[in-house]
Amino acid sequence: MDSITTGPAHKAPADSRVTLAHIMSEHDTNLYGTIHGGVIMKLIDDAAAAAAGRHADGPAVTVSVDRMSFLAPVHAGDLLSAHASVEYAGRTSMDVGVRVTAERWNASGPTVEVVTAHLTFVAIDEDRSPRPVPELRPVTPEDHQRYLRAVRRRSLRTEQRTAAG
Ligand SMILES: CC(C)(COP(=O)(O)OP(=O)(O)OC[C@H]1O[C@@H](n2cnc3c(N)ncnc32)[C@H](O)[C@@H]1OP(=O)(O)O)[C@@H](O)C(=O)NCCC(=O)NCCS
Predict the structure, then answer these.
(1) Tens digits of per-residue pLDDT, 70-128?
(2) Does domain 10-164 have CATH number 3.10.129.10?
(3) Which of 30, 32, 34, 55 is most buried by its number of CB atoms within 10 A?
(4) What number does the ligand 1 atom closest to the CA of 94 have?
(5) Which residue has the least CA distance to atom 39 on ligand 1?
(6) Which residue's C-alpha comes closest to atom 21 of ligand 1?
């Protein structure tokens, strides 16, 4: 397991923001000729894990996916970029937002937003037990908006988990 370092007591979203980019291959297509959703989900999980790991100064595991919206199809040859940032940090968990954009290989048109997703990660120690993470301090107006939306998602999630028993 990766080593755990002791970092600062608080961080800004910009301190852990990550972009992962990948060119989609024809091997990743489904029966309809577009890119399989699972391939994009892997890229999203990887980018979110990298942002969570940066914020937590060590390993963090996916514990839930709140929402994943596929907004437009992705094709072989498209350059996908997954932009992940930590939007809220609890005691040991982190809410990470991911926005995926596509640059079409055969068109000079604008970059298109193709997926948005929100995931929760938990920082773990050597025994795979939850461990505390730095506080998240929003800085920009956008950071503050994302923070407030993450707080709402978190309370909704807690209600749903309680209702589900
Ligand atoms: C992540 C894991 C260690 C958490 O253990 P746990 O006993 O549920 O931990 P706790 O109940 O103490 O909760 C720890 C934190 O996770 C949050 N959490 C737990 N389950 C959650 C869920 N389903 N959704 C969102 N948050 C959750 C809690 O709210 C708490 O957050 P906080 O400390 O910020 O308040 C454990 O669930 C696990 O190992 N899961 C498997 C992870 C995995 O293998 N992922 C796939 C590969 S990366």
Answers:
(1) 999 999 999 999 999 999 999 999 999 999 999 998 777 789 999 999 999 999 999 99
(2) yes
(3) 55
(4) 34
(5) 128
(6) 63
